[in-house]
Amino acid sequence: MAKHGKKYQEAAKLINSETVYEPSEAVALVKKVATAKFDETVEAAVRLGVDPRKQDQAVRGVVVLPHGTGKTQRVLVFAKGEKAKEAEAAGADFVGDLDMINKIQQGWFDFDVCVATPDMMSEVGKLGRLLGGKGLMPNPKAGTVTFDVAKAVQEIKAGKIEYRLDKAGQIHAPIGKASFTEEQLNENLSSLIEALNRAKPASAKGVYLKGIAISSTMGPSARVSAASYK
Q1: I want to staple 193 with a disulfide (CB 3.0 to 4.6 A). Which of 7, 38, 95, 229 is the partner?
Q2: H-helix or E-strand containing 191?
Q3: Which residues of 40-53 are buried (b: 16+ CB within 10 A; e: fewer)?
């Protein structure tokens, strides 16, 4: 069992692990116990009533958080010609084609998100092992394989995140920073839950939102009432 430091133990006294809090109350508590010397990320963990082993119950998608994540995303776009110019104009940090592919093959990974035009995917596919292992491979379902590169870059910069069901049937996603206001974190959390509700598989039976918890990077988690979002 992991041992926690004194600060964590003091913070844990403020949050009852057996209590299911209203969203606003949970957010206030998580902000209160985020006492690290850096601006902690606040993350949501959502347990869904689906079977992750079944392909038709895989929950995956994207959502633009109204207040962003608090992190500046470095965007790399694989494109050429006019599409490369559009990506640059939209604020992409890095734009290129074969030159960028060669750079990555040599070990460069100073970016957070990859976008590619469909005509580049035959070349980008060669980076499958390198990008896939880091969760950076462009994907049509995530909106990162598209000819509308300007929109893709703008949405990522505005706070678009991708969520994906893990093997334990949970979704983990950042909803902001501890420095955000309670209102901002609440609205970001609501946007994530709404997106998950819209993504509910038709084959999912029974209770869909089984549990929600939020926590900061170094702090204990607070359980959130799933009934608040039904």
Answers
A1: 229
A2: helix 182-198
A3: bbbbbbbbbebbee
pLDDT digits (tens, 9 = 90+) for 32-66: 999 889 999 999 999 999 999 999 998 989 999 99
Distance (Å) of CA 120 to CA 81, 94, 115, 116, 150: 12, 15, 10, 6, 16
HSE-CB for 122 with a 13 A CA cutoff: 1
- Main-chain phi, psi angles of 106, to 5 degrees: -90, 5
Q: Which residue has the tokens 């893709």?
A: 152
CB atoms within 10 A of CB 190: 16
Q: Give Dmax (Cα) for the chain.
A: 58
Instruction: Tell me which residue of 209, 229, 230, 212 sits closest to 221, measured CA to CA.
Output: 212
* Total-model pTM: 0.82
Q: For residue 68, what are the CA distances in angstroms to 72, 79, 80, 151, 207?
A: 9, 25, 29, 16, 29
Q: Which two tokens stand for residue 46?
A: 């959502």
pLDDT 10s digits, 97-147: 999 999 999 999 999 999 999 999 999 999 999 999 898 999 998 899 999
Query: Mind listing the pLDDT tens digit for each residue in 2-35?
Result: 566 676 777 677 898 899 999 999 999 999 999 8
